[in-house]
Design brief:
By secondary structure, the protein is α+β, with helices and mostly antiparallel strands. 52% of the residues lie in helices and 12% in strands. It is elongated, with a radius of gyration of 34 Å.
């Protein structure tokens, strides 16, 4: 578990470094693009590459129906290890359990609980404040007036509203108020509250990683700059907008909270400088957008594909090993009276049992087809039912996940030796051979 956590942390660190370099290359483009990239760096802490790998392994690659297990005539002899008589073995003294790991877990839990409590308390305070606020006269339904001493901000994730302190309204001109409201509504349009809470979760879980707090700062700066760019793009006068922010600052500087999606968030000096003197951001362009999209798909697809391919290789190796083991098995066949039970296969380490099967069902299961696809006539294919036990000299690997294709060699040998039957697939006999039962 510790090794998996360390792997996840260094992978997330490298990913964050790659995002940082990309944002530096996109300094002349929109802040919304950079904010999206930093959000990806934050989400990466919640989605380890190992999870994508396991998802790929769960999806897997199907084992081809037509694949025929390869049997080896002779096994490689294993070298016999020898211990020199002059060596003596002594039992190692048991070591006292270390208290370091429990202590670190307790420290992590205490800090995480403290951060979670502060996060929850702020969330509940904003919810109570938005419920107590009243609709602003003559404004859109998303604007609320509150008598509390707060700064203009956005509350709630679902059905968000803009909170305006009543004491501030008389200090802003109409154009300044409209620009401030446009900034807050840009937050709503961008779903910034949801994104902020998502990163708060990352900060709570990975508070010990310095890059998490660096990402949070970058998210905050780019989020506010993206909203400032949106306000200017909608035609609001930069001077009036900057004057409105300064008026809000003079009134609300003492009540500003760091994590609030609000008018005073971010570095105000840099924001004012960008509002008054910056040029419109350059469009991202098709080439950059395509490269960013491909990089995102590549980062997610590589571990997923690796998991799928490794799982498929593992399944193929497991199928070949179990096929070899079952080929060497001693087979016991016992006729049983017909019953309403379906055919079932049970596997343990050194025994595979097939209960209540007909010959047609046995072939169908081993070759991955339906019973009606197995050609051949006669009651001897359907009416007699059998219990079959295969005692293997070498234990079956992962018996709880035994693939039916591993039964092919056993079924071929059983039908040839006991029933003098042969199986044809695409008009090719599957050895060993006897009478004819064809399957397509």
């Amino acid at each position: 578990m510790i090794r998996a956590l360390i792997d996840h942390l260094w992978q997330s660190t490298l990913f964050c470094g790659a995002i940082w370099s990309i944002t530096l290359a996109l300094r002349s483009n929109s802040a919304a693009v950079r904010h999206g990239l930093w959000l990806l760096a934050s989400v990466k802490f919640l989605v380890p590459f190992s999870a994508l790998y396991l998802a790929g392994a769960a999806a897997g690659l199907a084992t081809p129906v037509g694949s025929q297990p390869t049997f080896f005539g002779a096994a490689m002899q294993a070298a016999t290890p020898m211990i020199s008589p002059s060596l003596t073995l002594s039992a190692a003294q048991p070591q006292a359990p270390s208290l370091l790991l429990p202590a670190l877990l307790c420290l992590w839990g205490l800090v995480a609980c403290g951060l979670a409590w502060r996060w929850l308390r702020g969330w509940l305070a904003a919810e109570l404040l938005s419920r107590a606020a009243r609709p602003a006269p003559g404004a859109l339904p998303d604007a609320r007036i509150t008598d509390e001493d707060v700064e203009p901000s956005v509350a709630r994730v679902i059905h968000p509203v803009v909170l305006l302190p009543s004491a501030l309204l008389g200090r802003l001109s109409c154009s300044q108020l409209e620009a401030v409201m446009a900034h807050e509504r840009a937050h709503i349009a961008r779903h910034d509250n949801l994104k902020a809470h998502l990163h708060r979760l990352v900060e709570t879980l990975f508070w010990f990683h310095p890059l998490v707090w660096f990402i949070g700062r970058q998210l905050l700066e780019e989020r506010e700059r993206a909203c400032d760019e949106a306000v200017i793009e909608r035609g609001h006068d930069p001077g009036e907008y900057a004057a409105g922010i300064l008026a809000v600052c003079r009134h609300c500087a003492t009540v500003h909270t760091r994590h609030a999606v609000a008018a005073l968030a971010g570095d105000l000096t840099t924001r004012i400088r960008n509002i008054l003197g910056s040029r419109p951001p350059l469009a991202l362009g098709f080439i950059k957008a395509f490269l960013l999209s491909m990089c995102t798909v590549f980062v997610a697809a590589v571990p997923f594909a690796a998991g799928a391919m490794d799982h498929a290789l593992h399944r193929q190796e497991l199928l070949a090993n179990n096929s070899r083991a079952l080929w060497e098995a001693d087979i016991l066949v016992k006729p049983v009276a017909g019953s309403g039970e379906r055919m079932r296969v049970y596997a343990t380490g050194n025994e595979v049992t097939i209960r209540n099967t007909s010959l047609r069902e046995l072939v169908a299961v081993a070759y991955g087809v339906h019973s009606w696809q197995v050609e051949g006539s006669g009651e001897w294919l359907d009416s007699p039912r059998y219990d079959i036990r295969a005692l293997v000299p070498v234990a079956v690997n992962e018996p709880e996940d035994l693939h039916p294709f591993a039964l092919r060699g056993l079924v071929n040998k059983l039908l040839a030796s006991r029933f003098d039957l042969e199986i044809y697939v695409n008009q090719e006999c599957q050895g060993p051979c006897g009478r004819t039962a064809r399957e397509y």
